[in-house]
Amino acid sequence: MRMIRWKGSFVWVLPCAFVLLVSLQPIVSQHCVWYGQCESVPDMEDKKYNCNYTGPPIPLAKDGYDLVQELCPGLFYDNVSLCCDVQQLQTLKGNLQLPLQFLSRCPSCFFNLMNLFCELTCSPRQSEFMNATAFKPYFDPVAEENKTSITAVDYYIGVHFANAMYNACKDVQAPSSNDKAVGLLCGKDAKDCNATNWIQYLCSTGNSQTPFPITPIFSDNPDKGMIPMNNATKGCNESADDITGPCSCQDCSIVCGPKPEPPPPEKPWTILGLDAMVVIMWISYMIFLLIFIGSVLGAWCYRKRLIMSEYGPILDTSSFHSINRINEDQGPSACCETIGERYENYLRLLFSSWGSFCVQHPLPIILLTLMFIAICCSGLAHMKITTDPVQLWSSPSSQARKEKDYFDSHFGPFFRTEQLIITTPHRNSTNYSPYPQGSNVPFGPPLAKDILHQVLDLQDDIENIQATYGNETIMLKDICLAPLSPYNNNCTILSVLNYFQNSRSVLDHSIGDEFYVYADYHTHFLYCVRAPASLNDTSLLRDPCLGTFGGPVFPWLVLGGYDDENYNNATALVITFPVNNYHNDSEKLNRALAWEKEFIMFLKNYRNSNLSISFSSERSIEDEINRESNSDIHTVVISYAVMFVYISLALGHIQSLRRLLVDSKISLGIAGILIVLSSVACSIGIFSYAGISLTLIVIEVIPFLVLAVGVDNIFIIVQTYQRDERLNHEELHHQIGRVLGEVAPSMFLSSLSETVAFFLGALSSMPAVRTFSLFAGMAVFIDFLLQITCFVSLLGLDIRRQESNRWDMLCCVKQTENSEHKSDGVLFTFFKTLYAPFILKEWVRPIVVAFFIGILSFSIAVVDKVEIGLDQKISMPDDSYMVDYFESLGNYLHAGPPVYFVVKEGHDYKTQEGQNMVCGGVGCNNNSLVQQIFTAAEISNYTRIGFSPSSWIDDYFDWVKPQSTCCRFYNTSGEFCNASVVNPTCVRCRPLNEEGKKRPQGEDFMHFLPMFLSDNPNPKCGKGGHAAYSTAIDLIKNKTDVGASYFMTYHTVLNTSSDFIDAMRKAHILAENITNVMENGNNSLSVFPYSVFYVYYEQYMTIVKDALFNLGLSLGAIFVVTSLLLGFEFWSAVLVSLTICMIIVNMFGVMWLWNISLNAVSLVNLVMCCGISVEFCSHIVRAFSVSTKKSRVERAEDALAHMGSSVFSGITLTKFGGIVVLAFSKSQIFQVFYFRMYLAIVLLGAAHGLIFLPVLLSYIGERKRFYLNFIQY
């Protein structure tokens, strides 16, 4: 008798020569066809022919009674006369062990299968349905008599019985391999199997288990004097006996009804077949245009009808009908206006006095600021940079982070992964012709034997890689995952070559003659991909399929690029080296990192013209991100250098070439830039003192932000002074004080708005956003302080130098020239005389409003279409080896990352009720944990759960059954006795009675569970749980109870960010459903899913809400601060907030057009966009607010002329040059999230601040106030 193993299990294919029978019909004629065993089968020494015997059944010896009761209790009646002896029963029991362990999960199926073979082997009425057709003489040396061996038989089987047996077994699962067991017994895929070819395969010598030909003949009617065996059967929805129940839903579709159907996909929101948002915004825009244009034309026509002159009265502010008319009779000022006036004058007085003081005492001010900078920057000694992706993207208080910590603390951290994806671009597929018959089987290019040998050489070279750490030499064997250690120290290597135990001799093993090859590596491969946990294949090779590490190698993990489940068509090989992870042991972690570094270097330098290799290591992403940051330092430096040069040159107001070296302000520009950079350094230093780690986003983004804010303020101060004329009898410090009193409130408004907005942004739960907000808020605030202190003092010194005709940079050189003459700059003149009047023309303003509202409408229509997530390839440099790896992942892999459904501590596994909530076998609830995951896997395209879960509790129940030889212990010591041990003192764990056949509960459950977890799989027992489940259960209370445990399965292939997000969301929904079912009044019970990528992608589950929260908070802060600092001009604050909101919404429109996804990086940029937008808007609005012109149009024109040029030169031109340089970066993330988004921020900010906002103010700006007289000096 032989065994066949199938996917993750050892499944027996009993030759039709040895079978038990439970006869349910009355015995009419009782005589045998065979009895006892004769000679051994040639080439199969462990199998024997049966001896020909045509007499009546022979009473069984009493020492065989227990065997009959155990194996075939239906035959235990009368004097137990059978057509088999005790030796046959003993052999039968040994061969039933493995099928018992795996098929007994559906007792009805196993009952029918045993019924089929029992009738053939031991039935007292064999001659009714079996006919011996070939014989061979045999001399028995023991009995010293001649006997006859039967070498072929015909077996007449009822069609009804065959169909009923197949229907009861067709759904039975092999849990550890996530496949149907019938696929093995049929010799082909389960989907191609039926009742006839299943039994034919079982009885065929082609399965390499049946010792002689047995020909099944199917009929429900007597044929040639034979009565077909047509015994009663049990349906899978029926109980096989009084102890067990019907098969579970997993193993019997009748029990659970039809296959679940996924809910229909959510229909897109459409109107008349078009996207609803587009239609709504188009209609809204059309309505707005009609109302707006109608209002403008109506007002124009009304004025034209009433006024004789067509143009003059319309623009005449004294005309009653003029749109620009000012109501002179404004009445007494409101309370808020009075407070605002006093507040405005107080700010002017304060900043004027302060500016005068700084210019009068430059050295003490400069010295004190340098001391302040030095104190803050000394914190840089404590600076820590966080590069760990978990720390960067996941908050310690987030759900995914807590679940990761829980998993790591109870089961150990998820292993580190080193992976290769190998293709053979220059090879073609080959065909394999099975012996003795069968159609050709195509084999993919990488499955050619010579290629496999080359891959094995590569695999061996990787195992022999040596790395040095300290004084140690580190090899893979020192850090790899070895699940059976210390009994088996072989590393886990998930590779197709582990079907051949990574051995060249096994790979080359073949059996044949000079004409034919009967079996070779093709045969072995085709068997192992269907039964990866088999200890021996069923071919003539008899080679094992189990990996050298003691576990199965599932084909979907080691092969890629195949269609459906035709693994032989694979176009890629996948090799994975799991390495132990050590989160809390830096020494061991550093050893692993050292080996991984050598692993990467080895593969970068590996050359083989036949192999194309994509690879990745656990450290690869972090390494490549760091390399990307370092490689882009030159790009960033050039970008900032361009901005520095522009600032230094643009600050100067050159009147002539002769005064070039006097009027230039290179030294002042450099000082201003150093102040900006010092504010960034101070911010980093302060938070380094506080122990807050720095991130790469802070380093890359904040200098850009602070430079935009700081340079804008510098230009405003300098250019306002350059346009100002010193009053009679006014000293320099009074003039600069007066200028500062004029512009500093505007600077204070923008800086305080940004600071408060950023600090409120620190309330975000996203670490990247929170860290950026903290550092940015502090940097902006310090930058403002340094500008109104140190920079004002430096400006006073520089003006004195200029007035004394000394050269810039070389102040000791004095030029004999006349003093400078004040004049407006070219840019200011352009804004004042050309740009501002044009933008505010009567016919231009409506066009501007219509255009910007149109852009806003478009952006609102597409805002919900912006992708969420971050494509892994974008985060890598263009020349990174990881780009090829990510492409190969998407092209070839057929299994996604593993996912663990963790049952937290608190569930009671020792009670039947608690077991039924979790298990998936007989008697388990139809909505149990395992069953719900199995059901989800049935609709994997929707749930993204690829396979049914591995269930330790179901395997434990099979392992502990008394019919099995798995669970035994020494009756002398009580210690566990492995199934392979032959020792009379080894006894069953549980008695072979009704009570013993039930599931263990209470103390019994916990008594044998540690034995199960320590048992290694072997040929006698394939259910040992050491390799598969040693880390799946957290035993507590001195191993007297089960704490946390997990049930593992795999996601489907996940390629894009949306795939990962959807998989995580569906897994959480599934876990929540399981929790709701299992709670049963225990509110502390919880089930959660865990996969290694969840901690990174959780942010996307709430990123829309986070974005609304952060941006809304920033806008709220800007509104409040603007209202206060504009003297309670709430309407002006509304207009500022509205304009910034439009910029943000338009940014989403740009993100959709430019394929920029919403993630932590882009959200940081959006928060920064709020800050920079304040600079574009607040200065214009404040200038409009304090303008003394009469009409709104004139005030808007005045504000745009005076502040527009400074904003344009200070932000737009400064940033534009630096941003263009970023376009040449090799980094995709720089090109997408910095070049594209920064360019959009600057262009949209400039367009709204310098075009739309002045026009908006000219229509609905705050009415003019009558302020108190300005401070005079």
From TrEMBL:
Coiled-coil region list: none
Compartments (UniProt record): Endomembrane system
Keyword Mitochondrion: no
Pfam families assigned: NPC1_MLD, NPC1_N, Sterol-sensing
UniProt protein name: Niemann-Pick disease, type C1
Signal sequence extent: 1-29
Keyword entries, A-Z: Cholesterol metabolism, Disulfide bond, Glycoprotein, Lipid metabolism, Lipid transport, Membrane, Signal, Steroid metabolism, Sterol metabolism, Transmembrane, Transmembrane helix, Transport
Gene3D superfamilies documented for this protein: Multidrug efflux transporter AcrB transmembrane domain (1.20.1640.10)
Reactions mediated catalytically: cholesterol(in) = cholesterol(out)
Stored PANTHER family: NPC INTRACELLULAR CHOLESTEROL TRANSPORTER 1
Family note: Belongs to the patched family.
GO cellular component entries: endomembrane system; plasma membrane
Membrane topology: Multi-pass membrane protein
Recorded GO MF terms: cholesterol binding; lipid transporter activity
Residue span(s) of domain SSD: 632-797
Domain of life: Eukaryota
Gene Ontology process terms (BP): cholesterol homeostasis; cholesterol metabolic process; cholesterol transport; intestinal cholesterol absorption
TM ranges: 269-302, 363-383, 633-654, 666-690, 696-718, 739-760, 772-797, 1107-1126, 1133-1154, 1160-1178, 1199-1225, 1237-1260
Record SUPFAM superfamilies: Multidrug efflux transporter AcrB transmembrane domain
The keyword Hydrolase appears for this protein: no
